[in-house]
Write a structure and sequence with these properties.
Elements: H1 7-14, H2 23-77
Length: about 80
Amino acid sequence: MNTEPAAKDIETKNAVLVRPSTAAVVTEEISEMLMYEELARARIRELHDVARGRRTRRARADGRRWNRPFAIAGRRRS
């Protein structure tokens, strides 16, 4: 009988088990998340800018809309 352990058994006994580093994967995931977050913020800023422009135009239109009734009322008083 062969009492000597096989070469495969020797390698596994002497091997040091090390977990693979996840630092690179985590860093990539965080970078990607930050990129998407910044993209979402940019879109929200654009929506706010569009809404602000619409409010300004609407306010001007409202002002013009009320000019005519005020003019008629002013003529009635005079």
